Annexin (Parambassis ranga), 321 residues
Amino acid sequence: MAAIVNRGTVTEAAGFNADADAQRLREAMKGTGTNEATIIEVLAHRTIAQRQRIKEAYKQTVGKDLADDLSSELSGNFRSVVLGLLMLAPVYDAYELRNAMKGAGTEEACLIDILASRSNAEITTINAFYKKEYGRSLEDAVCGDTSGMFQRVLVSLLTAGRDESNTVDAAQAVQDAKDIYEAGEARWGTDEVKFLTVLCVRNQNHLLRVFEEYQKVSGRAIEDSIKREMSGSLEDVFLAIVKCIRNKKAFFAERLYKSMKGLGTTDSVLIRIMVSRAEIDMLDIKAEFLKMYGKTLYSFIKGDTSGDYRKILLELCGGEQ
């Protein structure tokens, strides 16, 4: 397997010293008031692995939990970003999924953003952490909080069973395209299970071929058909799957754009993507954002947020370009 290239804006800090960082954070929280600038300087410029070592050093030297201390010192969106940065990636995903389903109502967007975009290995780890942390399976939680075909798509994604090979079966791709066409555009009512079977199970290369074949059979892009045939969360999850298969970075760029354009900001989406992609592909997401919208992600964040929340997001964004 090819080495995974870090296309993130957050990279390993040179001359890293966990004890020194722990002390700086301790000093930043001592006495009255908090030195947010230090917190941003340390945490936004360390990798997840380095932050785990800072957490250990903090516990050893202070005898308290760093996340607990920061949580009681900070508030609002800034606190949400900082606490997210302290978590391992699958722990953060599990935590976000849990929050999306806690209390009344469900933040379907969170379930979709995470489950439609993560690899099998990532979903398997998220499942394990969720069970360990919250004492029930993620599938149980999802089933208790969603219903109908939307629930079935999420359950399918949670099995982490997508084919991850690169092989394209040309004849099968034609058949898949026909099956979807006949399940949707070509009939009265939509047989959504056919969409699920193809979109949740086949590998990326194969699906790209299916999308081409679908265009030939139906005369329109599969996204257009999904929009015509479906609505609500089911439409959203199928569109997210198709977009992630086509170009995951563009998917995240669009989610960021939509979280900030118009009145108000959907901070939950903005925070989740900035925190979870900072060390993976933020450089590519920024490039896609600029290509798609003609403005930098940096300028959007700057115009849409304020205070320490804005400062830490701009650090995670990593410069204007």
About this structure: Residues 232-260 form the longest helix (29 residues). The domain at 18-85 is CATH 1.10.220.10 (Annexin V; domain 1).
